[in-house]
Specification:
The chain is an alpha/beta fold and 503 residues long. The protein has 2 domains: 128 residues, no CATH class; 336 residues, Peptidase S8/S53 domain (Rossmann fold, 3-Layer(aba) Sandwich), CATH 3.40.50. 33% of the residues lie in helices and 18% in strands. An 8-stranded mixed beta sheet has the order 10-9-13-8-15-16-17-18, sandwiched between helices. It has a 4-stranded antiparallel beta sheet with strand order 2-3-1-4, with helices on one face. A hairpin with a 4-residue loop joins strand 9 and strand 10. Helix 13 packs parallel to helix 15.
Length: 503
């Protein structure tokens, strides 16, 4: 929701009004009467920061606070004066600086109100303060829910096979979604596996003890607790672990068919998204088994998380040289700061991939709805649109399997998932394959060139699902062709004309 700031009365007029008042008469008024007058004045002008700076000894915030109420609210604030300036503003308005977000300019912070002043009034006061160039609510996002279906045949194929150094279920490797996107053909034909490419996963975290994923984890962080690692195991304890929810289907007693609404074998709504991050990581590993997985835990086990933690994760990923950012979550509203963070990432040749959402309609969610994000819809195992998937071109760029996807799950198990959350990592893994094709020219792979390569897809009849269903072979082939032309052009020319030919 956009909050419109009332037009403030110029400070000069306020000071003239004060001069016209006989201040001596105030000494005879009761304290309640003084506060009442100040309340009316502040509500009319919404100019507390300016007034407070002109009268540093008067803390109008504390007086206004006695007459309004509500729960504390978090805001994302950009202050050109940095932390020092924002601390001064918060001392005047009664807010608290919770943490810096980590943007390269050092101007972005999370603050929290006391809850004693209504949000519209506080926001108007905040925007009037010196140095504040943007302020927006720290909205909550979520991993989007979807419904499960019947168990696929490959969920029962538990014969072990070696997959890039780890023993995995055959069903995991030979499942229908993996065959649809032609992963095995691509890996063999182009000798690619994502080697050396960092893929950041902004999600619920990853199980660090998973034998398949553990050797490939790097540089993780838990933004929900401000601790290193990015593990999602800390969200549960021994009293809740391993409790099978009656709404999910066990596979031979060790695995559950989970979706993004029940998402897990852990009972209780507070654990409804437990395992989500480990599942998305398993899909990326399936496509690009030698890529590095960077777990950036920004969502709790219930599937919810603050936008500020997502922003922190994006800036963290760029600073740690991630090449791909997978975002299997959604916010219902756009955000100035989210758009800025994504733009910052793409300007550093980081490719951003996000799930289209599971409303089953022509609905735009964020960050997938932003113009410089590869928006991924879901298709079935017969290459038809998933009934739950959002659609629309733009913003949907491409589709990928998102039904009955068998992938890794905490505690050494596997799970089957439905949702666009599980379509996006197929695309992220494919970008990692492209990035590993020629490491010396990986800098040429950016948001635009990656999207162009991915557009070489398997067409489907329905409109609104981008260029069709992901084809890893065609995408990597298109990228190889682009590199061949680009390298040849680079060898035969230089300067501006050369750059123009490459583009």
């Amino acid at each position: 929701m956009r909050l419109e700031s009332p037009s403030p009365v110029p400070l000069g007029k306020m000071l003239l009004s004060m001069k016209a008042i006989d201040l001596d008469c105030y000494r005879n008024w009761t304290k309640a009467r003084v506060l009442s007058v100040l309340l009316c004045w502040c509500l009319a002008t919404a100019s507390l920061p300016a007034l407070a700076r002109s009268m540093p000894g008067v803390h109008l915030y504390s007086q206004l606070a006695r007459f309004t109420g509500g729960a504390p609210v978090r805001f994302i604030v950009r202050d050109t004066q940095g932390l020092a300036g924002l601390n001064v503003t918060c001392s005047l308005l009664g807010c608290q600086v919770l943490q810096a977000i980590g943007d390269p300019d050092g101007q972005l912070f999370v603050i929290q109100t006391s809850g004693l002043v209504s949000s519209p009034i506080f926001l108007a006061q905040l925007l009037a303060a010196t140095g504040i160039t943007n302020a927006e609510a720290d909205q909550r996002g979520a991993t989007p829910p979807a419904a499960s279906d019947t168990m696929p045949w490959y969920a029962y194929d538990q014969i072990l096979t070696n997959y890039y150094g780890a023993d995995v279920w055959q069903g995991y490797v030979f499942q229908t979604p993996n065959q649809i996107v032609r992963t095995s053909d691509t890996q063999a034909s182009f000798t690619v596996s994502g080697m050396g490419v960092k893929v950041a996963l902004i999600d619920t975290g990853i199980d660090p003890n998973n034998a398949i994923l553990a050797p490939h984890l790097v540089d993780g962080y838990d933004f929900t607790r401000n601790t290193a690692g990015g593990s999602e195991i800390g969200d549960i304890n021994q009293s809740t672990a391993g409790v099978i929810d009656g709404s999910v289907q066990p596979v031979n007693g060790s695995t559950a068919a989970v979706n993004q609404s029940t998402a897990g074998v852990i009972d209780g709504l507070q654990y409804s998204a437990f395992g989500h991050g480990t599942m998305t990581a398993g899909i990326i590993h399936l496509v690009a088994p030698n890529s590095w997985l960077m777990p950036l835990k920004s969502f709790s086990a219930d599937g919810t998380g603050y936008e500020s933690d997502v922003l922190r994760a994006i800036y963290y990923a760029v600073s740690r040289n991630a090449k791909v950012i997978n975002m299997s979550f959604e916010f219902t509203s756009s955000s100035v700061e989210l758009a800025k963070a994504i733009t910052y990432a793409t300007s550093h040749s980081v490719i951003c991939v996000a799930s289209a959402g599971n409303d089953g309609s022509l609905t735009i969610v964020y960050p997938s709805g932003l113009p410089n994000v590869i928006d991924v819809a879901s298709t079935s195992n017969s290459n038809t649109p998933s009934w739950f998937s959002n659609y629309g071109t733009p913003p949907v760029w491409i589709s990928a399997p998102g039904e009955a996807v068998l992938t890794t799950y905490p505690y050494g198990t596997y799970a089957v998932g439905w949702g666009t959350s599980f379509s996006a990592p197929f695309v992220s893994g494919t970008v990692a394959l492209m990035a590993s094709l020629d490491s010396t020219n990986a800098g040429l792979l950016n948001q635009t060139t990656a999207a162009q390569a991915l557009s070489h897809a398997q067409p489907i009849q329905q409109t609104g699902y981008g260029f069709g269903v992901l084809d890893t072979y065609q995408a990597v082939q298109a990228w190889q062709d682009f590199l061949t032309v680009s390298v040849n052009v680079s060898a035969s020319c230089s300067g501006i004309s050369c750059q123009a030919n490459i583009q």
